[in-house]
Amino acid sequence: DFIAAATVQEEIGTRGAITSTYGVDPDVGLAFDVTHATDYPGISKTKYGDIRCGGGPVIARGPNINPVVFERLVAAAEAYQLEAEPSVTGTDARSIQVSREGKACGLISVPLRYMHTPTEVVALSDLEDTVRLIVRFVRDLDADVSFVPGM
Fold first, then answer.
1. Count of alpha carbons within 13 Å of 95, Cβ hemisphere only?
2. Residue 118 CB: number of other CB atoms within 10 A?
3. β-bridge partners, 28
4. What is the DSSP annotation of 50-84?
5. The pLDDT of residue 13 is above 70
6. This prediction's pTM
7. How far is residue 137's CA from residue 140's CA, in Å, rounded to a whole number?
8. Nearest residue to 65 via CA among 34, 91, 97
9. How far apart are CA 6 and CA 4, in angstroms?
10. Which of 10, 71, 101, 120 is catalytic?
């Protein structure tokens, strides 16, 4: 089964993701969000990374991202960008990861320029590529998949 949930209150504690993940109890979860694009003058790419609008979906990697989910997302992507998440992500991914006994989780983001301003900008191609990535990831799943690293 494939279940999609549009959650609420991500900015104030990922409350919708907490209740949705607990209620659904998935084998694996993907959080879909936006991330800061850094392709404009005045922002430090050294500090914040090099994320570009039009460069494709952004796949997160870090200690709170399941490594098997990450590898499968990369394998399913036609084009992608990477984002290092050295700690909790501040997204619904965190709530998915710690639900019940813990869930395998990945995070896919669309690059967003000028986040939290009246002039936010995304590339429609990034949205389309992100949908293709999610569909391919899901279609590549089978009953025997294990999200335990090394299994």
1. 23
2. 5
3. 104
4. ---TTS--EEEESTTS-HHHHHHHHHH-SS-EEEE
5. no
6. 0.90
7. 5
8. 97
9. 7
10. 10
Q: Quick: pLDDT tens for 64-80.
A: 899 999 999 999 999 99
Structure token pair of residue 116: 């939290």
Q: What is the DSSP string of 72-130?
A: HHHHH-SS-EEEE--S--SSHHHHHHTSTT--EEEEEEEEEBTTTSTT-B--HHHHHHH
- Give the distance between the most distant pair of CA atoms in the chain: 48
pLDDT digits (tens, 9 = 90+) for 103-130: 899 999 999 999 899 999 999 999 999 9
Residues 56, 122: Cα–Cα separation, whole Å:
11
Backbone angles phi, psi at 59, to 5 degrees: -105, 125
Which tokens belong to 86? 């050295």
Q: Which two tokens stand for residue 33?
A: 């969000």
78 given a catalytic annotation: no
Take residue 143 and report the two structure tokens written for it.
């009953």
How high does pLDDT run on average in the chain? 90
Instruction: Look up residue 128 and give its two tokens.
Output: 């389309």
User: Whats the size of the chain, residue-wise?
Assistant: 151
Kindly tell me if the per-residue pLDDT of 139 is higher than 90.
yes
